[in-house]
Structures are given as structure tokens and as C-alpha cells.
């Protein structure tokens, strides 16, 4: 492994001053970054350790939502009473991912910044990967792409984002709060991840040196009926082939509002706005759920090995909506 400098940051400002240097990377739980460094995929000049920063609380906001600081572990988020009560889909999504040991180390900020698990990206033995080595080509397009994107891909890259939590955050209209050399700003989750286009090496819209401070969850009316369905090749410790975050607010037997997003199909959580609109005003049930599912995969552009995701996506949407309608709050 290449040698690198290691710096402990003691304040946010101190971290940003170090993190803004060329070749520097922030280190939190390290569950993804250290693996990539061991394999030579990531080769930072310096690691800026964030673990001494006090970014480890979850608190209610004045607006009635919640603020999850960036250093809170995935386990702490999933098991927090406020998250379980008001945002059970977040808890459910996190618990469907990784293992207990990894969830105990991985953090909220790191969850958003984890990198694709495309095998050609993860292994330096493969020479063509535009995300790892810009301009080198995309081995997946004409190689193994069964798990890859059906939405939002480009000639340069067809990778998917691996986060489960982010899919749940999408239907909640979460906001990512960051601070950088030019001050603080808030990024809606829908604008946080970058589609590959011609620059697949860029995963998100963070600017140089920006540090994630936390994730704001606005008040939600989807808590009573929500579900996270993850379809994968084995029941644990596997990434989604397709996942669905679904939330419904039902008033007097009619869907008053809905949230629906897919994971495992794009380089970002894929929000299904049109399917959400179809659900509103209908009674929850077969007719409404199939009508939404029929539109869910509109615009998909599968590759030869992942065309199965079209049918799988539709069926998963129906299943997730049924589960969301059947549960109440934290029953999941
Ligand atoms: Fe690399 Fe993206 Fe192609 Fe995978 S899909 S080989 S990450 S460029």
C-alpha cells in the first residue's frame, strides 16, 4: 500500500483545512475506504480522521423532524427511538444492509459516500474502469453487468450506488448539510448524487474539501405505512438487485400522499414521482399498486444481462406497497 499522512481533526474547521488539501480524504468508520486502499483502488495522500469530532447525536429539529449528525453509526441510527418512531423506513433500510459488525462502524456520512461495488471498479487487476481510471473504458458494458444500472447510465459507466439508507432518505426528501472552505450549504438528497455522464469518477455534488455535517429529515407523514423491500441473491450481506422504499399516508381509506423510490437500479436512489402521483387519490390495494408499478420502470434502458430488473422492479413495487399498507409504524 502507498504511504500516506494521517491527521486527527479536532474541530470541523480543522478537518476542512486538512481535507481541502490535494489528495486528502476524510476517514470516519473506514468500512469502505480502508478496503479500497488495501486493494490500491483509493490512494490518498492524507487521511483526515473525523472520529474526534463531536458529530455523534440524533436530535429532534424545531420543525418536528430529526437531524442525524454525520458520525452517528448505522446501528445507532437504526435503533434510535426517534428514527424508529418517525422514520421506520430508514431503520428498516439500514438493517437490511451489511452485517452487525459493519453497521457498528459505518457512519451516516460514510454511508452516503460509499462507492460502487462494481467488480471492475473494486479490482485493479481489471484495466478498464472509467470510474477508477478516467478514460480507460467500461469493462462492465461488454462484460459482467447483471447487477448494474437500468436508469441514468451512460456509455462511460453503468454502475449502481450501493446504499440502502439513501433510498429510504429519498422518499423522505432528506437534506444533506455540508460545510466547506466557502461555508455551509444544504443539498436536497435528490441533488446529492451525480449520474455518471462523461465523468463517472465523480460520485456526488460535493465541492472540494466539503465535509458532511449531518442529514436532516423533515417531518414525515409516511411513518404509519412504510416498508423497505430488498431483493438480492442471498438473504444477508448482499447488495440489492432491486430495492424499494415505499411510504403511504392513508386518510379515510384513500392514499393522501405517497413516497416511492428504487435502489439497485441507478447511480442514485431512483425516485418514482409519476408512480407516486398515480397512487394518490386511490384506495390502497391491488388496482392502485399495479397501476403505479406499471409506470415504475418507464424509461429504463437495460443491458442484456440485467433486463430481468424490469419485471423484478414492477413486482417489487407491488410487494413493497402491499407491505407498507399492511404494517403500522414501527411494526416492521
Ligand atoms: Fe467502472 Fe462504472 Fe464501468 Fe463499473 S460500470 S467498470 S464502475 S466505469
UniProtKB/TrEMBL annotation:
Q: Which Pfam families match?
A: CO_deh_flav_C, FAD_binding_5
Q: Which GO terms describe its molecular function?
A: FAD binding; oxidoreductase activity
Instruction: Supply the alphabetized keyword list.
Output: Oxidoreductase
Domain FAD-binding PCMH-type as annotated: residue spans: 1-222
Return the InterPro entries for the record. CO_DH_flav_C, CO_DH_flav_C_dom_sf, Diverse_Substr_Oxidored, FAD-bd_PCMH, FAD-bd_PCMH-like_sf, FAD-bd_PCMH_sub1, FAD-bd_PCMH_sub2, Mopterin_DH_FAD-bd
State what protein this is by name: FAD-binding molybdopterin dehydrogenase
**Species per Swiss-Prot/TrEMBL record:** Mycolicibacterium litorale
Amino acid at each position: 500500500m502507498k504511504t500516506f499522512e494521517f491527521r486527527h481533526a479536532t474541530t470541523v474547521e480543522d478537518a476542512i483545512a486538512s481535507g481541502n488539501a490535494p489528495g486528502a480524504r476524510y476517514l470516519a468508520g473506514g468500512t469502505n475506504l480502508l478496503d479500497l486502499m488495501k486493494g490500491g483502488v483509493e490512494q490518498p495522500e492524507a487521511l483526515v480522521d473525523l472520529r474526534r469530532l463531536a458529530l455523534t447525536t440524533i436530535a429532534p429539529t424545531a420543525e418536528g423532524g430529526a437531524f442525524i449528525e454525520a458520525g452517528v453509526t448505522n446501528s445507532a441510527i437504526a435503533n434510535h427511538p426517534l428514527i424508529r418512531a418517525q422514520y421506520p423506513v430508514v431503520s428498516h433500510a439500514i438493517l437490511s444492509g451489511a452485517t452487525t459488525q459493519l453497521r457498528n462502524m459505518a457512519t451516516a456520512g460514510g454511508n452516503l459516500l460509499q462507492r460502487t461495488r462494481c467488480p471492475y471498479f473494486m479490482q485493479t487487476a481489471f484495466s478498464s474502469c472509467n470510474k477508477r481510471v478516467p478514460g480507460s473504458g467500461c469493462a462492465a458494458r461488454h462484460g459482467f453487468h447483471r447487477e448494474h444500472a437500468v436508469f441514468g447510465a451512460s456509455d462511460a459507466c453503468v454502475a449502481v450506488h450501493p446504499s440502502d439508507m439513501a433510498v429510504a432518505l429519498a422518499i423522505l426528501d432528506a437534506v444533506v448539510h455540508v460545510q466547506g472552505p466557502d461555508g455551509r450549504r444544504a443539498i436536497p438528497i435528490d441533488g446529492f448524487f451525480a449520474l455518471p455522464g462523461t465523468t463517472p469518477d465523480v460520485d456526488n455534488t460535493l465541492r472540494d474539501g466539503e465535509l458532511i455535517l449531518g442529514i436532516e429529515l423533515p417531518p414525515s407523514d409516511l411513518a404509519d405505512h412504510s416498508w423497505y423491500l430488498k431483493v438480492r441473491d442471498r438473504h444477508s450481506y448482499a447488495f440489492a438487485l432491486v430495492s424499494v422504499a415505499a411510504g403511504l399516508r392513508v386518510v379515510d381509506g384513500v392514499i393522501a400522499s405517497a413516497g416511492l423510490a428504487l435502489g439497485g437500479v441507478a447511480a442514485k436512489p431512483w425516485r418514482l414521482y409519476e408512480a407516486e402521483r398515480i397512487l394518490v387519490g386511490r384506495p390502497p390495494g391491488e388496482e392502485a399498486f399495479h397501476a403505479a408499478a406499471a409506470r415504475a420502470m418507464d424509461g429504463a434502458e437495460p443491458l442484456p444481462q440485467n433486463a430481468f430488473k424490469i419485471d423484478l422492479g414492477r413486482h417489487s413495487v407491488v410487494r413493497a406497497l402491499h407491505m407498507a399498507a399492511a404494517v403500522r409504524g414501527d411494526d416492521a
